[in-house]
Amino acid sequence: MYTLRALGDARVLALVEAAGAGDWEAVKAALAPFDLGRDHQILGELADVDGVQDWIGLAVEEDKEHRATALLISGARHIIWGWEARTAERAVNVTQEQWRIFHERLHIAEEHLLEAAELRPDWVTPWRRLLTSGRGMSLGTAVNETRRDAALRRDPLDLETHLEWLSQLQPRWGGEPGQALAFAQEASARAPQGHRLGCVIAMAYIEEWVESERADCLETPEIQAQLREAADHSILHPGYVWRPGWQHDFNMFAMALSLAGERHTVRRVFQTLDGAYTSWPWTYFAEPEKQFARRHRRA
Hints:
This is DUF4034 domain-containing protein. The chain is mainly alpha-helical. The protein has helices spanning 10-20, 24-30, 40-47, 52-62, 67-86, 96-119, 125-136, 141-154, 159-168, 179-190, 199-211, 221-233, 246-259, 265-273, 279-282, 288-298, and strands at 2-3, 276-277. It has a two-stranded parallel ribbon with strand order 1-2. The longest helix has 24 residues, at 96-119. It is globular, with a radius of gyration of 19 Å. The model has no long low-confidence stretch (mean pLDDT 95).
């Protein structure tokens, strides 16, 4: 077992290292093979680099030609940085000072992402990130539905937007029981064969498990069959596109199938992964790496 780094791609590693060094020219050069306005995972790798917030503001101000790209990276980073200040504590345990810094950073994120979206109307990534900041700032259903629709107009099959909305529909965020699963099933039914949108089914059942008080709530023949069908229709289909970070898609199915007690497809998924572990969605467990390793062995 090993933790996947830089999406398992040398080009992404070069991008992350350039961002870590604060080298804007090298970041732009390393971005050349990628479409940051549509590739959420590449943007996510940049947003996770500690220290980007220290230099990206200068790029926003000085590089007029690439202002939209700098704004997009800054906005995504400020959301991550904001949550770092808030911490993963329950709301009642977050201090007033932590809340203040959280909202201050999310406010900057909102400004930068909205301007990036205005400068590049074809981009989908700013709108998906605005769903995250909108939830953090409690902007309400109407605002977030508008942002969801803006993202899906630009790419009706965008997986990350669907996953973000799936979280929004959970009872812990004010949704109704069963609402998220229905949304996922409708979305997956629209996806062409081999499309990664099928992962929304895996994530919907993981979320059902998170919300349930029963650890075995997914262990039914019906759910096992649905997950098998979704995997065959998406990640295990010959038409599936192998892109940097494909291991994230397979980790979603690995966790969902193992939670459902499925015995056959789960083996193929873990064999394809060959020990490549991604922390999400396994972080729903108290000991995510141990759970991955245990379920990998069992499969």
